[in-house]
Inverse folding.
C-alpha cells in the first residue's frame, strides 16, 4: 500500500503506520535518504507467480523519486543570503505576474501585443537589480550578526534560566502530583474504610439498640426487683427485730425457769415435802420400822408422779426453746447473707446504669445521622412518587383519548359499511362502478384494520408501560413504608432512652 501510494501522484496520504516495516523505512521510502531496493526472483517455473509479482513490485518501487536534501544547519550569513534570494525571487515573480496581467488585459480588450513585447521571466529578472554578494553581506552585516549573536546568547541564557526554573517548577508539580495521587489513594482507602466502619457502626448501632432495649427491660425488672428486695429487706429487718425480741423474751423465760429449777434458790413446798419423805424413807430403812400411813404414801406417790410430769414438761420446753433459738439464729444468718448479696447487686446495677450513659450519647449522635438520611431519602421517594403519579395521569388521559378515537373510527367504519353495501345491492345496472366501489371498500377496510392493529399495539405498549410504572410505584411505597417503620422504631427507642434518662 505504501509503494502504491508513493507511485500514485494523486494520493495524498501515505499509510506508513500500517506496518512496523514501513514505519522503520519511512525516511528511505520517499524520504530524504538514498535508497537501494533489492528484489529476489527465481528462474523456476514453480515460483512463476511469485516472481512476476516481485518484478512488478520492483518496477513500481523503481518509479519512486526521493527528494534528497542535505541535512546541514545553515549559519546566519547563509540564512541571510537565502532570505535575500527568496525575497528577490518573490519580487521578480510579483512583477512577472503584474506584467502578465497587463498583457492579458490588453488581449481581452481586443488589442494585440507584438511578439517582441511579450513578457518573459528573463526580461523581468534582467530589469531587476542583482542580488548582493555573500562577501558584501559579510562585510556590511557582521556587526549586526555579532549584536544578534550577543542578544541570542543573552536570550539563550534567559531561556536556560527560565528552563531551570520551569524544570524545578515541573519537579515540584510532579512531586505535588505524586503527593496528590497518594492523598487520593489514601482518601479512597480511608473512604472505603469509613464505609466499612459505617456499616460496622450501623450493625453495632442495631446491636447496641437491641442491647439497650434488653438493658432497659433488665433495668425495669431490676428496679422492680430492687423495690421488692427493699420491701423484703424491710420486712426481714422487722422480722429479725421481732425474732430478737422473742429470743430475748425466751431467754428471760428460760432464765426464770432455770432460777426456779435451781436447788440453791428458794425451794417450793412440794420439793420440801418430797425431800422430807425421802428422809423418812431413809430413816425407815435404817430403823426397820414404818411410820407412814396409806394416805401419806398415796400423796407421796402422787407428788412424785406430778414432779416427774413437771420435770418432763420443763425439759420439753427447754428443748423446744433451744431448737427455736437455733432456727432463729440460722434464719438471721441467711437474711444477713441475702442482704449483703442484694447490696452488691444494687451496686453493680448502679455501675451498669452509669456506663450506659456513654452508649446513650453515641446512640443520640447516630440517631441524628439516621434521621438526616431518612429525611433525604423520604423527600427523593416522595418526588419520584409524585412524578410517577403525574405520568400515570398522563397515560390515563392518552388512553381515554385513544379509546374515544377508537370508538369514533368504529362508528365511521359502521356508517361506511351501511352506506356502501346498500348501494351495491340497489345498483344492479352499474356493474363497472361496482368493482371500483368494492376496491375502495377493500382499501378502506385495509386502512381501518391497519389503524386498529396500530392502535392495539399502542394500547399494549401503553398498558405495559403503565403496569411497569404501577409496579415501580408499589415498590416505592413498600420501601417508603419500610423506611417509615424504621424511623418509628428509632423514635420509639429514643423515647425509651429519654424516659430511662429521666
Amino acid at each position: 500500500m505504501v509503494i502504491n501510494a508513493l507511485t500514485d501522484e494523486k494520493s495524498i496520504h501515505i499509510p506508513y503506520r500500517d506496518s512496523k516495516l514501513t514505519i522503520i523505512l519511512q525516511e528511505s521510502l520517499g524520504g530524504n535518504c538514498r535508497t537501494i531496493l533489492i528484489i529476489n526472483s527465481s528462474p523456476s517455473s514453480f515460483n512463476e507467480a511469485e516472481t512476476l509479482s516481485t518484478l512488478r513490485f520492483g518496477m513500481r518501487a523503481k518509479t519512486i523519486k526521493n527528494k534528497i536534501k542535505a541535512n546541514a544547519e545553515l549559519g546566519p550569513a547563509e540564512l541571510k543570503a537565502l532570505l535575500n534570494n527568496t525575497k528577490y525571487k518573490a519580487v521578480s515573480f510579483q512583477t512577472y505576474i503584474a506584467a502578465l496581467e497587463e498583457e492579458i488585459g490588453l488581449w481581452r480588450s481586443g488589442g494585440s501585443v507584438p511578439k517582441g513585447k511579450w513578457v518573459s521571466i528573463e526580461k523581468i529578472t534582467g530589469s531587476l537589480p542583482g542580488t548582493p554578494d555573500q562577501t558584501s553581506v559579510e562585510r556590511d552585516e557582521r556587526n549586526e550578526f555579532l549584536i544578534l549573536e550577543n542578544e541570542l546568547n543573552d536570550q539563550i541564557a534567559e531561556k536556560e534560566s527560565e528552563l531551570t526554573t520551569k524544570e524545578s517548577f515541573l519537579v515540584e508539580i510532579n512531586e505535588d502530583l505524586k503527593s496528590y495521587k497518594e492523598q487520593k489513594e489514601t482518601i479512597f482507602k480511608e473512604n472505603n474504610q469509613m464505609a466499612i466502619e459505617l456499616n460496622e457502626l450501623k450493625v453495632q448501632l442495631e446491636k447496641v439498640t437491641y442491647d439497650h432495649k434488653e438493658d432497659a427491660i433488665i433495668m425495669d425488672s431490676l428496679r422492680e426487683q430492687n423495690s421488692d428486695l427493699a420491701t423484703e429487706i424491710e420486712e426481714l429487718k422487722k422480722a429479725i427485730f421481732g425474732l430478737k425480741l422473742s429470743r430475748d423474751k425466751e431467754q428471760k423465760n428460760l432464765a426464770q425457769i432455770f432460777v426456779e429449777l435451781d436447788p440453791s434458790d428458794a425451794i417450793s413446798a412440794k420439793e420440801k415435802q418430797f425431800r422430807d419423805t425421802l428422809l423418812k424413807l431413809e430413816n425407815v430403812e435404817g430403823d426397820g420400822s414404818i411410820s407412814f400411813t396409806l394416805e401419806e404414801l398415796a400423796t407421796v406417790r402422787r407428788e412424785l408422779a406430778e414432779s416427774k410430769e413437771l420435770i418432763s414438761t420443763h425439759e420439753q420446753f427447754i428443748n423446744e426453746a433451744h431448737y427455736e433459738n437455733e432456727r432463729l439464729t440460722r434464719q438471721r444468718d441467711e437474711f444477713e447473707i441475702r442482704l449483703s448479696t442484694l447490696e452488691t447487686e444494687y451496686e453493680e446495677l448502679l455501675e451498669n446504669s452509669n456506663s450506659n450513659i456513654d452508649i446513650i450519647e453515641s446512640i443520640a449522635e447516630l440517631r441524628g445521622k439516621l434521621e438526616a438520611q431518612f429525611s433525604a431519602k423520604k423527600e427523593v421517594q416522595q418526588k419520584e412518587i409524585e412524578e410517577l403519579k403525574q405520568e400515570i395521569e398522563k397515560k390515563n388521559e392518552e388512553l381515554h383519548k385513544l379509546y374515544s378515537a377508537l370508538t369514533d373510527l368504529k362508528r365511521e367504519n359502521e356508517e361506511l359499511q351501511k352506506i356502501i353495501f346498500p348501494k351495491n345491492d340497489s345498483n344492479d345496472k352499474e356493474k363497472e362502478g361496482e368493482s371500483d366501489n368494492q376496491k375502495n371498500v377493500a382499501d378502506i377496510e385495509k386502512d381501518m384494520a391497519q389503524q386498529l392493529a396500530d392502535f392495539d399495539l399502542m394500547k399494549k405498549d401503553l398498558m405495559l408501560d403503565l403496569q411497569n410504572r404501577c409496579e415501580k410505584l408499589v415498590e416505592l411505597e413498600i420501601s417508603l413504608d419500610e423506611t417509615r417503620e424504621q424511623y418509628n422504631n428509632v423514635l420509639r427507642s429514643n423515647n425509651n432512652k429519654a424516659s430511662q434518662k429521666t
Observations:
- Residues 174 and 180 are 9 Å apart (CA to CA).
- Confidence is low (pLDDT under 50) at residues 261-267.
